[in-house]
Each structure stands twice: as C-alpha cells, then as structure tokens.
C-alpha cells in the first residue's frame, strides 16, 4: 500500500494499466504521471497539455495512454517512453472524458461542447461526432463488445 505523491495540484483522473503494473494519474497541474504500482515510484512525468488534465485512460494493450484536457485536446502518449505520439483536435471546449474501445482501435471523448467524438486511435482522425446532450458530457465509455458507447451529461441524461 502506497501513497503516491508528486503532483502539485488536484488529481482529476487515474487509470491502471491492463496488467496492473502501472498507474497513470492526470492532474490540474497539467501533467500526467506514470507510477510503478508495486513500488510507488514515478517512472515518467508527461508534459504537453497547456491546462488541467481531466481524464486519462490506458489502451487495452497497455502501450498507450489517452488524455483529455481543459486545453480542448486529446493527446496519445507512448506508455513506455512517455513521448506524445499524437494530438487530437476537434472539440471546442474542455475534454472531460476519454476512453479506448475494447479492441484499442478507437477512442471516444466527451466534452463541455456537448458532443461526443469517436477517433481513429492510430491516425487521430475524427470518424464521428455525436450530438444530443444539452449540456457538458462528463463521462463516456464503450460497451464490452465495442459496439455501443454510453455517455453521461450535466443534462441529467445517459445516452
């Protein structure tokens, strides 16, 4: 049991790697840290977002981390090296939630701009934009078979 310390502001999101060996944390200090779950050691500090990190999510194979931020972008990071591989632009407000599809081929994001976007995880291309919520989309996720997306909003609805 460890207390992991190193961020200088609120922790907004945490995610275990699929093998349980690492933990990613995203903070209002604008950084993402990758921690050794066994020792509590900080392995990497990922810098690149210009504002708070709202959401972090490991890919199903554990090789990448997606992050969503107040800077309206999603970044894809190499979980081994900590290098930013891609920056996904398209939302017009804070990215509140990100998540990988079960096969790792797509990323879903929800935003204060009231939209949900589906991205190609390799190319970073926005494949679909889903509308329907009347307020911020706070949380998004894929069904276990990857065929459906669920979203929760400040408008008090789940879609």
What is shown here, in short?
The protein has 159 residues and is mostly beta strands.
Head-to-tail CA distance between termini: 37 Å
Question: What can be said about the biggest beta sheet?
Answer: 4 strands, antiparallel
Strand order of the largest sheet: 1-2-3-4
- Main structural class: mainly beta
Radius of gyration: 15 Å
Let me know the average pLDDT. 96
Low-confidence sequence ranges: none
Please, could you describe this protein's structure?
- The chain is mostly beta strands and 159 residues long.
- The chain contains no helices and 14 strands.
- It has strands at residues 11-16, 22-27, 32-36, 42-46, 53-58, 64-69, 73-78, 84-89, 95-100, 106-111, 116-120, 126-130, 137-142, 149-153.
- The protein has a 4-stranded antiparallel β-sheet with strand order 1-2-3-4, with no helix packed on it.
- A hairpin with a 6-residue loop joins strand 13 (137-142) and strand 14.
- The model has no long low-confidence stretch (mean pLDDT 96).
């Amino acid at each position: 049991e460890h207390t992991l310390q190193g961020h200088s502001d609120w922790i907004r999101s945490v995610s275990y790697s699929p093998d349980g060996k690492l933990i990613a944390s995203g903070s209002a200090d604008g950084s993402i840290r990758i921690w050794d779950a066994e020792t509590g050691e900080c392995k990497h500090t990922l810098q690149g977002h210009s504002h708070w990190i709202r959401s972090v999510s490991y890919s199903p194979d554990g090789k990448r981390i997606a992050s969503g931020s107040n800077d309206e972008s999603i970044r894809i990071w190499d979980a081994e090296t900590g290098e930013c591989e891609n920056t996904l632009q398209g939302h017009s407000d804070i990215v509140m939630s990100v998540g990988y599809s079960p096969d790792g081929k797509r990323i879903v994001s929800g935003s204060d701009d009231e939209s949900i976007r589906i991205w190609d995880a390799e190319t970073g291309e926005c494949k679909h934009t889903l509308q329907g919520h009347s307020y911020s989309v706070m949380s998004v996720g894929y069904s276990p078979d990857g065929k459906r997306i669920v979203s929760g909003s400040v408008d008090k609805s789940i879609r």
